[in-house]
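Title: Prediction job returns without error message
Component: structure pipeline
Severity: low
Priority: P3
Assignee: unassigned

Description:
Job completed but the reporter wants confirmation the result is attached to the right record. Sequence as submitted:
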Amino acid sequence: MAHKMIRALVADDSSPVRALVNQGIRIHQEKRYFEIENSEDGQKAIDALRKKPFDLAFIDINMPGLTGSQVVAAMSETQSKGCLSIAISSQMDGGHEKVLKDFGAYHFLQKPFSKQDVADIVSAYMTMTEVYPVMIVDDSATMRKLTRKTLDGSRFQFDVDEAGSAEEARRKLRRGDFRIVITDFHMPDIDGLELAGMIRELSSKVAIYMMSTNDTTYLERSAAFIGINGFLKKPFNSSDIDSLMHKLLGLEDPKFGKVRDLFSFLERDKKAS
């Protein structure tokens, strides 16, 4: 399958740091084609982001002109509003951290870092932009639509199919190659736990996540016992999906992303111990 070019911006007033980030990005040049643009101050970084869409941006927090936080805050008004932004600095105070988190920055690289640290983030981006086939199972068309919208807002890419019942889901699973199933618990005839058991009989490789308004310890423990990968209490959002996908794919939790347990009873057990 042909992959699109990855366009990266490196913004830092230090020439050696820009060179190091460039080297880290180019570790993957045998797998993907990269177009890299370098900026030595915040204003030039903003100008670049306005001219064309970037996929990745490594932005120093403390730059002349505009700070990295100001650049990230203004990114939503540029052609690069969907860009994965990584803040870099020797230190980060609470003010910068709040702005970066509020405006959707992804991760933080603390100086000094290595080119491999940069390469690891680029590798995570490439993993996130692979397409993952997912099936939403819910007898409510409204909930299927809402779940699809939540998936669309994730940093990850999905090829979404839907099933209005457990039986329809089972038929599609036998015909299709799904990586993930997100199923409601409360469904007529066959509930989500029973469906999960059927899926496990077909495949141990499909990741299963259960949705429910009820997150009782009993229900979650039953889900974990059957082999369900995680639990999503309704309502949930795109950051919950991102957190689950990072765990599923073995990616490091990002500095500014939501971190959550796969099951809420694990958090309750930690507090009780």
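Comment from assignee: result matches the submitted record. Residues 115-128 form the longest helix (14 residues).
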